[in-house]
Amino acid sequence: MRKTAWSTRYGYYLVIVASAFSLGNLWRFPFVVEANDGASFVIPYIFSALILGLPLVITEIILGKAYKQSVIGALDQLTRESMLAPRLLKRTHLWVWIGRFANYASVLLLAYYAVICGWVLYFLGMYAASVFGVTETEGPELLNNLATQGYTQVGLTFVHILITAVAVSKGLREGIEKSLGWLMPLFFALIIFLVIRSLMLPSASDAIRYLFYPNFSDISSGTLTQVIGHVCFTLSIGMGTIAVFGSSLREDSRVTPVSFWMVVLDTAMSLCVGLLIFPLVFTLKTHATGPSLMFDALPRLFDQVQCESFGCGKLIGVAFLLCLYIAALASSIGLLEASVSNLVDRHKFTRPRAARRMGFIAFGIAILPALSSSVLKDIKILKMPILTFFDTFVVNWILPLVALGIALAVGYGMKTEQKKNLFIDPNQPETIALFGDWQFLIRWVVPLFILFAVIVNVWGVFKN
Fold first, then answer.
1. Structural domain boundaries in the chain
2. Tens of pLDDT along 212-240?
3. What is the pTM of this model?
4. What architecture is the 9-463 domain classified under in CATH?
């Protein structure tokens, strides 16, 4: 049984929001929006975050809080107590395998996510050096230079995974809770400031129209799959991370408000990021697409920010990138914690030993995406660069399928009374009615929604 890891409810909220909100919003959201014609992705994404994302976040937190274990241990215990064909489930270990796939997904995600975190470290170092006159930043040229330096990317990836492993080996609370207490509010303030500055650019109205006025005829067969995948990615669904956070949720904390505010804040900040990036794209006519979009656009905005008394663009860049890296580190810690907690809970590893082992595995896998823009640039998997393939395979395939399995396990396997005790707040009578709505969504709407998207995705693969 895991003890509560958080000294305050505020600390818990900060960590779980930071785990969800970081590079998923700032790095991935803009290029997925750009690849799916703006509002044709954004509007379905908002709808899916509420109808799909919120019920799934509640489900994973309930799973973790009910059994106080990692996702594999929790699903194993649920299998033993299941109301749904317990003998069959025990014999096939079906739900335990769902937990294992969640662990595999968390390690694969950490592997290529660490490469992007290495990019952030590189930009942070270059901007910090430019403040002291050591070097001059060339804005968007920084990423072009880094793209050709494969072994530099491997080194930066190693540094990030090392920092993550050290933080996890010391425990969740010691690793990140204190630093997030002041960095996350600063980060949000900087984002709001940069959004306001971006909306002052000449093409801001075009960007708003692009983001919020959809032409649904532009929606392709793969849009729904990408919407569901990104909802899972940005809310940390299907990785085991949310279940781990749920396992250390304070006894007096209710599941529903934690989940609601996490989804609302994450979705709101994604939209803010869209309002930050796309006025720049439209005004300055950036040519970057895909994973490099954010790293091309943000330096241009930092270069635009000037004060009358002194140029502060570089200072804002350093502050913003520092906060971005800390938030990305919180996400990485959550990803590594998902697999480390399994080794600690089920295989009696010490936390430092488990962190070293899983960190080493993640780094070994990460070498491939780290070299995908240089040494391995000519290698394609299904016509995609290695980094893009990792992102597409894990986010659009593994995460939705794991989320589907967890939804079915909790929706049909866990006792209704047990779920009620965790969901319903005696001080909030409306949660009684909401429980029925959540149960219906998790048993019927969410599984059918995901299954439909998977079928469409499979059809699209064979069709092409």
1. 9-463
2. 998 877 777 788 899 999 999 999 999 99
3. 0.92
4. Up-down Bundle (1.20)
